[in-house]
Amino acid sequence: MADCVNHPGVESVRYCPRCGQPFCGDCLVELEGTAYCGPCKDVRVQELQTTPASRRPTSVTVFGVLNIVFGAMGVLCSPFVLLVLLAPQFIPQPSGGNSEAYLVTHSPLMRAWDIGSTVIGIVASAVLLAAGIGLLSLKPWGRRLPIGYAIYCLCIVVIGSIITFVFLIPAMMTEASCSNDPGARGGAIGGAIGGVCGYGITLIYAALLLFYMTRPGVVQAFRPTDKP
Ligand SMILES: [Zn+2]
Ligand SMILES: [Zn+2]
Q1: Which residue segment(s) compose the domain that 201 sits in?
Q2: Percent over 70 (pLDDT), the chain
Q3: Nearest ligand to residue 4 Cα
Q4: How far is the CA of 29 from the centre of ligand 2 (A)?
Q5: Same domain, yes or no, for 29 and 140?
């Protein structure tokens, strides 16, 4: 072995794994089970102490904020949706007839689905909100929660699409063709398109979540800090 960089004449016992220079036992400091030279140990300590924000990938920050925004919106809005679904006849309809149309076109089974999916939606929004907070603070569960949410979204989209296309759109079309009002027909088509767009956006968001949350850089960021 070569001489210690700091002590000429003293044989080194090990190379510093960071700078690659030979050092004697007196010069090496143990950190996390690895022997570093003095300056390198200081640098490693600094690296380990850097705040989670600095090692947080941009995608995690973006999804953290988005999840909090969407989660909060869902938690705040869903109870009103639920109210409308449970008692549509009590909600004043300025455009007229909307709540009636809802009751006519929606069988009890479809109303049950609407109400059930809204209740699940409230829970999912709360989960999404928590996932956003977990993402921003780089908690280990902060990555698993959005993945779970994305899988839930995919299931809801599949079930919801089936219900929309098999039951809802035919029912609305029948209702619209029965009435001579072109406005009702347009409303039915508009509602169908709106529903499809809603599912499309959910699908894209879930796919993006799944894609980014499984990226190696993101997985790495959620590992415990003791391994560099
Ligand atoms: Zn070193
Ligand atoms: Zn030395």
Answers
A1: 53-221
A2: 79
A3: 2
A4: 11
A5: no
